[in-house]
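During the no-cost extension, the postdoctoral fellow (Dr. R.K.) reprocessed legacy sequence entries with the updated structure-token encoder. One reprocessed record is reproduced below for audit purposes.
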Amino acid sequence: MISASKFQYGLVVDDHADARRWLVQALQDAFPGILINDAHDLASAHAAITVQHPDIAVIDLGLPDGSGVELIRALHHEESPCYKIVSTMFGDDGHLFEALRAGAEGYVLKDEARSQLADLLRGIVDDQPPLSASIARRLLHHFHEPVDEEIVRLTEREHEVLTLIAKGYTVKKVAGLLDISVNTTAGYV
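Re-encoded structure tokens follow.
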């Protein structure tokens, strides 16, 4: 379980000022007292992380000087851990899976209400990945589509675990429900 006090420094990256303010407010609602830097593009985001490495970053994908995925990769390979969450309008498989492969640990759509986004962010403390409901459904649907025989399919247990996560259960709760360890559950996720 992650402690809320772990999130002392945050970073919000979005090229739209209104969206940036909305994300900063949601992050402050979720973690009162957090100090937040904001950036409007990749260059200013990279500059911000050299001054103060964030504990949590909320990153838009469509930035004027590149993709937020580049920043996610950079933060993922840093020695200091940073919880990386995508906040975007893109709900398609291409953007979703590219961001997750790069190291994103959450993916929320910008059509969430601020209070709902704050709740999703707060859920991190209880090992709940911040995923918009439509994104969780998209993940499940992706694994129900017919696939090439060369691609490995999910096991029954992996499917069980992902279904419970999509219903909003924490990794810890899923572990208890299925009578398996938290580490084993996280491995299935």
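DSSP finds nine helices and seven strands in the chain. The mean pLDDT is 87. The remaining legacy entries will be reprocessed before the final report is submitted.
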